[in-house]
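Aim 2 progress update. The chain analyzed this quarter is reproduced below.
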Amino acid sequence: MLGLSVPQFDILSTLTEGEGISQQELADKRYVTKGNVSGLIDRLVEGNLVERQPLPDDRRFYALYLTPEGRELAESGMAIQRAYVERTLGKLNQADLGDLDRIVTNWREFVRADMEALSPKSVKAG
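Predicted structure tokens:
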């Protein structure tokens, strides 16, 4: 979409929700590894869509911000996405939408619990 991969668009749209987060925080929000995010961010920085700024209290880490071009592209993509959802899911009745929301919410919680269980932090040394 718009010349971006799905993961790249996901990063841009996530940053529209709150800029100034670290790559680790972004990885945690997207349920991916910091290494995955790092390569995506590198390409978005090269494309002048995202910029890294040193964190004032710890210059070893960077906060991520959208450039004006990145914000415009993210907003265009989100408008396309909203129109698609309206054309498809918008045709469901309220009861079906409620069921879908409940199912997806429950599934997301199962995924989060599974990710927590598989996290290296949760593995105890033997």
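Residues 92-126 form one domain. The radius of gyration is 17 Å. These observations will guide the mutagenesis experiments scheduled for the next reporting period.
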